Amino acid sequence: MGPVSKPDFPWWLAAAVAIAAAAALAIAASDLYRQVFSTVVAGIGVTVFVTLVAFAMASLLGLAVALMGLSQSIWLRQTARFYVEMVRSVPILVLLFWIAFVGVPLFVTAWNFITAPLQDAGLMDALVVRDVSLLWRAVIALTIAYSSFIAEIFRAGIQSVALGQIEAAKALGLGRYRRFRHIVWPQAFRTILPPYGNDFIAMVKDSSLVSILGVADITQMAKVYAAGSFRFFETYSIVAYIYLFLTVGLSLALRGLEKRLRSPESQYGDAGR
Questions:
Q1: Per the structure, how many domains does the chain have?
Q2: Does the residue 243 lie in any domain?
């Protein structure tokens, strides 16, 4: 076994910190940049909300689709494969428009048809398209789009667990849920984490697509301000700075978590291999 190489000094991180510090000083020293920053940052709450809610829902839906794809039922497997292939073949922007302006109206029509007897009896009001906010239409679209990618990540991670360990768990009398919780998932998660974290960072960036629908996220606030002030350079420099701050910070946090999971103390089940 060769000598262990010393980790490289993170010069890229030092450069990024230096640029971030210089940008922060520029924002603090300039009235114009402070004004742009205060306007744009007002949309960060929407960006964070869309990212967290859509990614959480996409993870749950993706896990369900992944388990369907690993089912013993051919109908469930084929349904999962159909869903994944159809959804991930459509650009996210196109899917966003389709959900917002086609899918939601179709859902409202179907809902009103199903609940017509209750509406006639005065037990509930008819649903109208405008009752479904553009924010939630964007969240639903991102949920559906990312669930197809996350499903494939989960499927690959689960299949990476050695079959012998699952058979051993069966021999010990563990049920399907306990096998998944105690044997499969802890080992699969270490394989899943890098691509799963990458999808989370991608979701932060793709949340800017909701501005197409007029949702007041960071990008939309920047578009409105730049259109009125013609300060495009300053405005979009601030937007880039905010997204870089968010994504680089998340990337560092995920790398730290990956390193912790690779440590000897976290190697669940490795001692018995």
A1: 1
A2: no
pLDDT (0 to 100) of residue 158: 86
What pLDDT was estimated at residue 25?
86
pLDDT digits (tens, 9 = 90+) for 125-141: 888 888 889 999 999 99
pLDDT digit string (tens) for 146-160? 999 999 999 988 888
Residue 113, in any domain of the structure = yes
pLDDT, tens digit, for every residue of 51-104? 999 999 999 999 999 999 988 899 999 999 999 999 999 999 999 999 999 999
Q: Which residues contact 152 (CB under 8 A, 6 or more apart)?
A: 66, 84, 88
Tell me the residue range of the domain where 124 lies. Answer: 49-213
List, for residues 12-32, the tens digit of each pLDDT value. Answer: 778 888 888 888 888 888 888
Angstrom distance (rounded) from CA 235 to CA 135: 23
Contact predicate 165/183, CB 8 Å: yes
Three-class SS string for the chain? CCCCCCCCCCHHHHHHHHHHHHHHHHHHHCHHHHHHHHHHHHHHHHHHHHHHHHHHHHHHHHHHHHHHHCCCCHHHHHHHHHHHHHHHCCCHHHHHHHHHHHHHHHHHHHHHHHCHHHHHCCCCCCCCHHHCCHHHHHHHHHHHHHHHHHHHHHHHHHHCCCHHHHHHHHHCCCCHHHHHHHHHHHHHHHHHHHHHHHHHHHHHHHHHHHHHHCCCCHHHHHHHHHHHHCCHHHHHHHHHHHHHHHHHHHHHHHHHHHHHHHCHHHCCCHHHC
Answer whether residue 236 is part of any domain.
no
Any domain includes 93: yes
Higher per-residue confidence, 172 vs 131: 131
What CATH number does residue 165 fall under?
1.10.3720.10
